[in-house]
């Protein structure tokens, strides 16, 4: 190694140290695996000149499931998306049609976090080339997607290997490679005049020049169909929305959006000029035309700045929950050093904390950052989500913020709105913006929520709890299946406030 030229040594170190998408457990590029994909890409891009408009996203079997997911939720990052033999949704893949009653309602709703089948139109923002073996049972997944796209008026390119099971047929593979090579060479159209975006979460809130900044209801379908229309030199941005309350549109002159462009949202002609800015003094050719609009009482208007701190506590991209979202970025697990409110809950906390550490090591193959509550620094608050173990007496960080949280907890009761729970037999777990730094999460007493299922199938690696829950400390983690041991559970609303808490 030392005999190599310095530049080659640098490249070698970069590649050796780069994260690998398969460096975790078998996760089909979900959660930490999803983060790894983009960190790997960025790492390689620091060494090699990569054209981001000419990226191909192929995958087969579990890789196919990953391609369906990353293609559906990041459709503007790939010149071509090429899934083969991968599942597209939990319900059909797990054959749960007759067993849905056994699956908690919040878990079913959270399938929308990763299911590609709930947002098929997103593939229209790129080039989709699917492959299936003719006699592969996994062909059913691609067939479902093909049907869903046809309902949107989009014909899917679906290459089928004759008389082939769960593998590539030789001639079909040549066809796939031809399609993928051509699409990659052509590259991604970075500024299309038409964009459609469907999401069930602000986690996946943008495509090309369209960004959904806020929704009316998380975990329900939000949709934007936007088009730049040029009629005899008059430019109009025509936008239709559903379940959206705050929208950003950022275009460059490639779409010939000019000074007189008008914006029409849901039939309402806003008629104002965009905000114009250039990334640099020399970047006039790449000027960005930006529209930002917000809906209030059913009426769209240009968004004005929010100066009220309360108005800033809103669900937004990467700050929308559920609990598992905190484990997609840097986090610290914070150990309590004080005396617990009661011995039973104190013992439960230590058991759950040890389980969370063990399962992170086992399934995400990482060493979680561990700190005592007395050692948390200002830098920790700035740079990491905090996973707080303990209660408002045992954990000094939790004690500092306890009165600012929507769930109140002391030695006599756990109060969630008008509901009260027994603090000697039950414990709250939840995610919330950290009051000490509202741009980071804090999570109370929970690791990622699906360790009981992680080894069974990556299709079951979906969130099992919403934003908050009350757990029975008598039901161990291994038995917490199908809602067992969950006394109550719910999401917070779009302002991180409690909903449906009246007895």
Based on Cα principal axes, name the global outline: globular
Work out the helix count: 11
Which residue ranges are poorly predicted, with pLDDT under 50 across at least 5 consecutive positions?
A: 1-19
Report the portion of residues in β strands: 25-35%
Q: Can you give the helix content as a percent range?
A: 10-25%
Strand order of the largest sheet: 17-16-18-23-22-24-25
Q: How many structural units, i.e. domains?
A: 3
Give a summary of the structure in a few sentences.
By secondary structure, the chain is an alpha+beta fold. Helices cover 23% and strands 26% of the residues.
What does this structure look like?
By secondary structure, the protein is of the alpha+beta class. It contains 11 helices and 25 strands. The longest helix has 21 residues, at 343-363. Residues 1-19 have low confidence and may be disordered. It has helices at 6-17, 32-45, 62-73, 90-93, 105-110, 139-151, 170-186, 309-312, 343-363, 378-383, 396-401, and strands spanning 56-60, 80-84, 129-133, 157-161, 194-199, 206-207, 210-215, 222-231, 234-242, 244-251, 262-265, 268-269, 275-277, 288-296, 299-302, 331-335, 369-372, 385-388, 407-409, 414-416, 419-421, 426-434, 437-444, 468-472, 486-490. The strands form 6 sheets. A 7-stranded mixed β-sheet has the order 17-16-18-23-22-24-25. Strands 6, 7, 10, 13, 14 and 15 form a 6-stranded antiparallel β-sheet that branches. It folds into 3 domains: 51-186, Alpha/Beta hydrolase fold, catalytic domain (Rossmann fold); 194-304, no CATH class; 323-490, no CATH class.
């Amino acid at each position: 190694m030392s005999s190599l030229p310095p530049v080659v040594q640098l490249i070698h170190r970069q590649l050796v140290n780069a994260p690998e998408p398969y460096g975790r457990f078998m996760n089909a590029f979900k959660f930490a695996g999803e983060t790894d994909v983009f960190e790997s890409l960025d790492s390689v891009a620091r060494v090699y000149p990569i054209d981001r408009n000419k990226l191909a996203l192929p995958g087969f079997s579990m890789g196919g499931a990953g391609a369906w997911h990353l293609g559906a939720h990041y459709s503007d990052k790939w010149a071509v998306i090429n899934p083969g033999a991968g599942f597209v949704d939990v319900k059909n893949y797990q054959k749960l049609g007759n067993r849905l009653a056994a699956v908690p309602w919040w878990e079913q709703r959270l399938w929308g976090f990763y299911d590609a089948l709930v947002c098929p139109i997103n593939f229209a923002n790129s080039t989709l080339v699917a492959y299936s073996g003719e006699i592969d049972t996994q062909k059913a997944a691609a067939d479902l997607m093909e049907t869903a796209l046809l309902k949107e008026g989009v014909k899917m390119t679906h290459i089928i290997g004759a008389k082939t099971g769960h593998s590539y047929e030789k001639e079909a593979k040549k066809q796939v490679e031809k399609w993928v090579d051509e699409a990659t060479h052509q590259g991604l159209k970075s500024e299309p005049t038409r964009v459609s975006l469907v999401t069930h979460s602000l986690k996946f809130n943008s495509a090309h020049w369209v960004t959904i900044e806020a929704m009316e209801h998380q975990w329900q379908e939000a949709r934007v169909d936007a088009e730049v229309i040029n009629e005899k030199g008059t430019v109009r941005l025509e936008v239709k929305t559903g379940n959206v309350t705050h929208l950003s549109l950022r275009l460059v002159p490639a779409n010939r959006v000019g000074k007189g462009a008008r914006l029409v949202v849901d039939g309402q002609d806003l008629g104002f000029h965009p905000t114009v800015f250039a990334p640099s003094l020399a970047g006039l050719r790449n000027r960005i035309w930006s529209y930002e609009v917000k809906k209030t009482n059913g009426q769209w208007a240009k968004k004005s700045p929010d100066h009220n701190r309360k108005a800033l506590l809103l669900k937004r991209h990467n700050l929308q929950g559920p609990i598992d979202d905190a484990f997609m970025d840097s986090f610290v697990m914070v150990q309590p050093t004080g005396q617990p409110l009661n011995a039973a809950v104190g013992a439960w906390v230590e058991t759950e904390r040890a389980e969370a550490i063990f399962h992170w090591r086992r399934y995400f193959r990482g060493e979680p950052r561990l700190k005592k509550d007395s050692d948390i620094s200002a830098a920790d608050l700035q740079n990491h989500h905090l996973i707080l173990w303990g209660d408002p007496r045992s954990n000094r960080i939790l004690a500092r913020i306890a009165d600012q949280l929507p769930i109140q907890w002391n030695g006599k009761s756990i109060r969630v709105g008008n509901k009260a729970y027994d603090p000697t037999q039950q414990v709250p777990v939840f995610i919330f913006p950290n009051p000490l730094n509202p741009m980071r999460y804090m999570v109370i007493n929970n690791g990622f929520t699906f360790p009981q299922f992680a080894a069974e199938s990556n299709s079951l690696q979906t969130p099992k709890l919403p934003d908050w829950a009350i757990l029975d400390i008598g039901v161990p983690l291994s038995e917490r299946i199908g809602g067992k041991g969950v006394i109550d559970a719910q999401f917070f609303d779009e302002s991180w406030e409690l909903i449906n808490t009246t007895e």
